[in-house]
Design brief:
The protein is mostly helical. It has eight helices and no strands.
Length: 134
């Protein structure tokens, strides 16, 4: 069962992407941001990679799921994770979401209490990706 196969399942009209989002977010239920940021890296990395592929392949359907929930409950804690692969995957989710919904992601990023350097690096990657697309 590959990631591509999983995403292809959710392309079917009868499949609700919100169900996959609920599964991805299940580990964050009743957990603090600090607890989430200390999860084992395979748990977080797999979920973040699913989100990147989901957003890249299917997009964001606001009537089914709210990307802000993903950003708050999973991506932001992942940006504070000790493992660099998890942090990189969290940035990839942000970049994928920015490609779909644009400046709302930049606005979200500006409001976050993250290290200044991290915010600058993410903004620079957003700008670089936007230039390559244009």
């Amino acid at each position: 069962f590959s990631l591509e196969t999983l995403i292809n399942l959710y392309r079917h009209k009868r499949m609700k992407v919100s169900h996959l989002i609920d599964i991805v977010l299940e580990i964050t239920k009743d957990k603090t941001e600090k607890e989430i940021s200390k999860f084992g890296f395979p748990q977080l990395l797999a979920r973040l990679e699913i989100l990147v592929h989901l957003v890249d392949e299917i997009g964001i359907n606001f009537s089914e799921w709210d990307p802000r929930v993903i950003l708050e409950r999973l991506v932001r804690p992942a940006l504070r994770h000790a493992n660099d692969k998890v942090r990189f995957a969290a940035v990839k989710v942000i970049l994928s979401m920015h490609a779909v919904i644009g400046d709302d992601i930049q606005a979200w990023l500006r409001k976050q209490k993250l290290p200044r350097k991290l915010k600058q690096d993410i903004s620079a990657q957003i700008d670089k990706k936007a230039k390559t697309v244009a």
